[in-house]
Design a protein that fits this description.
The chain is mainly beta and 242 residues long. It is built from 2 helices and 16 strands.
Length: 242
C-alpha cells in the first residue's frame, strides 16, 4: 500500500470555473466556502472541471499502488451472433477465452443496460475489454461502444470488476478509463460514437458519482506522497488524531 491523500472534485458540465481548497482534515461539504488556489480545471468539448480538493495533512488516507497484470490488448471484445453449430466437447481453450462479465448497470429509465466484458487473449498473453449497451426490450442487440480500457488488478492479482454509470437522464454512460498514464472519467453516448474525456487530472480518479440533477459529477482523486514522505511514514507511522 502507498500512503496518499484523497482529493474530492466536482465536475460541472457546461460551466467554466476552477476552484480548489485545501483542508486540514476530512472532506468538505457542499456548503463550505471555497478559496481560489493555483490548481486549474481543463475544458474539453464544452465540459469544464470544477475541482474542489480536500487534502488531509496528516496522510491518514491510503491508496493502492497500481498492480501490473497481463498485458492489455486495445482491440475491443466482440460478441458475435449466435449460430447453430454441431455440438462438440468443451476444450481448455474455450474456458480460457470465455467472455467474462465485469460490470453491469441498468439505466435510470429502465430501457437500456450497460455492461463491461473481458476476454483473455491466449496468443499475446493479454486481456481485451469491451463496453456495451443493450436495450431491455426482447430481441434487442448489444451495441459495442469500444474498448473498456485496461483491467485493474488487486495486490493479489485479482481482476477488479467495475460497473459503468448512467447519467440521471439515461443519455450518457460514464466509466473510468486509462488512456495514457492516469485513470480518468470518460463519457459515451448511449447510441454509440467516440467517448469524451471529462476529467484531466494529474492523479488517478478513484471513484465518482453523478449528482441527482445530472449537472455535476463528484469524484475522488488519490494523490500519492513523495518518496521522502513515504520513507518517513514507514519509519514513524501515521498520525491519526492529534
Amino acid at each position: 500500500m502507498t500512503n496518499g491523500a484523497l482529493l474530492v472534485g466536482i465536475l460541472l458540465l457546461g460551466t467554466v470555473r476552477a476552484l480548489s481548497q485545501q483542508r486540514t482534515a476530512g472532506i468538505a461539504g457542499p456548503s463550505d466556502e471555497m478559496a481560489p488556489k493555483t490548481q486549474s480545471g481543463t475544458v474539453s468539448n464544452n465540459d469544464a472541471a470544477l475541482n474542489r480538493t480536500t487534502e488531509s495533512n496528516n496522510a491518514t488516507n491510503q491508496s493502492s499502488t497500481e498492480v501490473r497484470g497481463p498485458r492489455f490488448d486495445p482491440t475491443p471484445v466482440q460478441i458475435p451472433p449466435i449460430v447453430n453449430e454441431m455440438r462438440r466437447p468443451i476444450t481448455s481453450m474455450d474456458l480460457l477465452t470465455i467472455r467474462d462479465l465485469k460490470g453491469v448497470q441498468i439505466s435510470p429509465d429502465g430501457k437500456s443496460v450497460a455492461f463491461v466484458v473481458s476476454q483473455a487473449v491466449y496468443e499475446t498473453n493479454s486481456y481485451r475489454t469491451g463496453l456495451f449497451v443493450v436495450g431491455t426490450e426482447p430481441g434487442s442487440k448489444p451495441v459495442n461502444l469500444g474498448s473498456g480500457g485496461p483491467p485493474r488488478w488487486s495486490e493479489v492479482g485479482e481482476y477488479l470488476s467495475e460497473s459503468p454509470s448512467w447519467s440521471p437522464d439515461s443519455r450518457y454512460i460514464t466509466y473510468r478509463l486509462k488512456r495514457g498514464k492516469t485513470w480518468q472519467i470518460w463519457r459515451w453516448n448511449r447510441e454509440g460514437g467516440e467517448p469524451i474525456q471529462l476529467t484531466h487530472n494529474r492523479h488517478d480518479v478513484q471513484t465518482f458519482e453523478w449528482s441527482p440533477d445530472g449537472t455535476r459529477i463528484i469524484f475522488e482523486i488519490a494523490k500519492s506522497v513523495g518518496p521522502e514522505e513515504a520513507q518517513r511514514l514507514s519509519e514513524r507511522g501515521m498520525l491519526y488524531d492529534d
